Amino acid sequence: GLVGSMSMSMNNPQGSAALRRVASALLDTTLSQRGDLLALKDGASGVYLYVNDAMAAWIGRSAHEVVGCTDANLFDADLARILRSADVAAMSHGEPLNAEHKFEHRGQRYDFGATRLLVGDEAGARDLCVIWHNLSSERQKEQQLRLALEQLEQNQRSLEQMRREMQANPLPDSVTGLYTKPHFDDQLKREI
Known about the structure:
Blueprint: H1 2-11, H2 13-34, E1 37-42, E2 48-51, H3 53-59, H4 63-66, H5 71-74, H6 77-93, E3 97-105, E4 108-120, E5 126-134, H7 136-168, H8 181-191
Helix pairs in contact: 1-2
């Protein structure tokens, strides 16, 4: 099956390279369809080794211009420091690490979920794979849903208030156009 083929491929250098290409293409395609950003960084230095087209576009440079740079070369000092700290934490954690980042970039506010995964190779190199998922549109939709729910609740309270007022002060009969006895009783109570 597939698992057996993958195991054999991993032991064969040519198969291993082919499997990496397939996995890379599959990951890139999946992330692109979701609009997610992907970066591979050198774990020790934080230098970008690879970024997908979406990540490069978000940074505002071509992928070729981003590769070889660090966060300090691409972002303001505060953001670069925050990102590097998160990278270092993920490197020391050793397992996939999820975090949320809220920051401003190129004049726009962003809310990202980031998953950092330490990857190593046979030679002992430790790189960091970072997948960024933009939560801004999801948060905006959540806010719109909250506002719509609040509006519905307000409308429901208003309708309930109107219903109570209608019961307390009935209108004339719709068929005859005459007021009903409760209306006259209420008027009489007010006059007395």
